[in-house]
Amino acid sequence: MTNRITELFQIEYPIVQAGMVWNSGWKLASAASNSGILGLIGAGSMYPEVLREHIQKCKAATDKPFGVNVPMLYPNIQEIMDIIVEEGVKIVFTSAGNPKTWTTWLQEKGITVVHVVSSVKFALKAQEAGVDAVVAEGFEAGGHNGRDETTTLTLIPMVKEKLSIPLIAAGGIATGRAMLATMILGADAVQIGSRFVASEESSAHQNFKQLVVDSKEGDTQLTLKELAPVRLIKNKFYYDIQELYQKGPSVEQLKDLLGRARAKRGMFEGDLEEGELEIGQISGLIHDIKPVAEIVKDIIAEFEEAKKSISRM
Ligand SMILES: Cc1cc2nc3c(=O)[nH]c(=O)nc-3n(C[C@H](O)[C@H](O)[C@H](O)COP(=O)(O)O)c2cc1C
């Protein structure tokens, strides 16, 4: 398969394994890259020197292209960016911040820059900032998200209408049919997160992976809009947030409840009650934990089959 995105990243299939805090270390990223898609290390949950170690291990485990996802809301960004340059990483996905801040600096060092957005307005700002491609992420997605609740089905064609640079769709995509659907709507590629949480190579705790497999439609909710909106599994921590909302809390009170290291506690350490468990709506369609290579093979086979059945219609 060849298009603007496969050429931009030098990959076989137009699929990106999403950067995900506590889930996408070197094992997941290298397995994804070795499967013919673009693997991303999620720097958001890593201290700078931990990131360096993951990049070095990823380089040793694959000779295919891979990248690093950098959510710009975390501290130490300068240090993170310096390590990315020193280690010779060629692709960076930035998110949760202003694309103007780092795009030119990275591109001057020969790095391809992609920025993640959740609206048409921010897609255009990213294009103006000179990024090489945009990820447009719908409200269905796991993890942090936009405030506007725009779904992937509506966001992708609206972004496509305005944007001229390559477009990667994200949010609610876990199958070959969904991949084809978003490409029909105008995407050049897809970014997949939740499906890869339930992979053998994800660094998520086994308890969390199993909960993703067991979860059903309606088990997630976007919450904490006053801080940074995030889609979570409805566990005890989620219901504690809801209880606090009944009292009309201040932002400070919400921050206090969130506290520190909730995401690590939930997704990495497996505390399913008190932890923050980030996952997308599509978890209701994820029924098994499989090696990344198998997940990619199944998605591509279903994509090809769906293309054939559409052309027979
Ligand atoms: C557990 C988890 C952690 C995430 N962490 C990040 C992150 O660190 N940076 C980021 O840009 N997006 C993050 N996301 C969003 C993903 O990169 C991706 O865009 C999203 O998962 C796509 O939607 P899907 O979950 O329906 O596949 C995260 C998503 C999940 C499920």
Overview of this protein structure:
The chain is of the alpha/beta class. The protein folds into two domains: 228 residues, Aldolase class I (TIM Barrel), CATH 3.20.20; 67 residues, no CATH class. Helix content is 42%, strand content 15%. The chain is globular, with a radius of gyration of 18 Å. 49% of the residues are buried. The mean pLDDT is 97. It binds flavin mononucleotide (FMN). The site of flavin mononucleotide (FMN) has 30 residues, from β3, β9 and α9.
List keywords for this structure.
313 residues; alpha/beta; TIM Barrel; 8-stranded parallel beta sheet; 3-stranded antiparallel beta sheet; 15% strand; globular; binds flavin mononucleotide
What's the SSE pattern?
Answer: HEHEHEHEHEHEEHEHEHHEEHHHH
Shape, per Cα inertia axes = globular
Small-molecule binders:
flavin mononucleotide
Q: Give the rounded overall mean pLDDT.
A: 97
Q: What is the annotated CATH architecture of the largest domain?
A: Alpha-Beta Barrel
Strand count, sense and closure of the main sheet? Answer: 8 strands, parallel
**Number of H/I helices:** 14
Radius of gyration: 18 Å
Please indicate the count of domains.
Answer: 2
Instruction: Report how far apart the termini are.
Output: 23 Å
Uncertain parts: none
Concise account of the structure shown:
With 313 residues, the chain is α/β, with parallel strands linked by helices. Helix content is 42%, strand content 15%. Bound molecules: flavin mononucleotide.
